[in-house]
Amino acid sequence: MNEQQQSLQDIQQIKQMMERSSRFISLSGLSGVAAGACALVGAWFANGVIEASGGTSNYRAVVSRTFASETVLDFLDHKLFQIALCTFFAALLSAFAFTYLRSKKNNIPMWGYSSKRLLINVAVPMIAGGIYIFREMQLGTYELIAPGCLIFYGLALVNASKYTLSEVRYLGYCQILLGIINCWFVGDGIYFWAIGFGLLHIVYGVVMWYRYERVAEKN
Amino acid sequence: MNLIENLNKIFDSRIRLGIMSALMVNDEVNFNELKELLSITDGNLASHLKTLEESAYVKVQKGFIGRKTNTTYSITKAGEKAFKTHLTALEKMIGSIK
Description:
- The complex is a heterodimer of chains A (219) and B (98).
- Chain A is mainly alpha-helical.
- Chain A is built from 9 helices and no strands.
- In chain A, α7 packs antiparallel against α8 and α7 packs parallel to α9 (189-218).
- Chain B is of the alpha+beta class and 98 residues long.
- Chain B has 5 helices and 3 strands.
- Chain B is elongated.
- Chain B starts with a helix and ends with a helix.
């Protein structure tokens, strides 16, 4: 009996080491919820700006005015850009905070080999996407910016799923699908953004928290 | 009691088992990474690695990152085989309860 128990424990140790050495598993579901909430608030403000200057039918005009600013300062001064920047940093910070807390609790260092590998694999599609979207802004194909963001972000998640919780893959698939659908509903980018970066993150975060962290919190 | 004989003595130690597990799923792992994963001291880790090296289950590559030494470890064919045999033996041990 004792030997069998020992064998079980050995197998558990093997499983744990394989996971810990190859994946970054401290990613918290609450990070997803927080980032999603930030995105929704950001989208709400952005929608306000767009509506104030003529409603969604005028989407192209509003967005193009932002990007067609004559000087860099003009561009930085524009409300849409400021909202986007604030949303991005708020989401990043809050996501970071919950994951930091979780890694602290599990006693796994946050900045290790697994997180480095994860970061590199997220960065490659994201940087490629960033350059592509920058060119879209320059060329004036503003309607394709939102779908582009969703598609490249989705690809980054699918790529990242090999180095963190594997469920991230499904979030990635959903973002890609949403981005592709958005290609045929140009001009409604703000709604697709809100669904993709807001709603999907929250749903994913809640599911992940329920699955992995709720139990751990009880113990 | 045949079952116990199939278990590899070298993998009796949880630490050595942990090292082998990490090496099974990574092409190579360096010393500090292993130390961090297992949260043990340098000396302790070095002695366990030595045992695995002597049984030809792991290979050592010594290199440099700038001026610092960077010693990485990877699993050998023999090590992979021994680990898989050990896993099967463990499974059989657990299966024998039923």
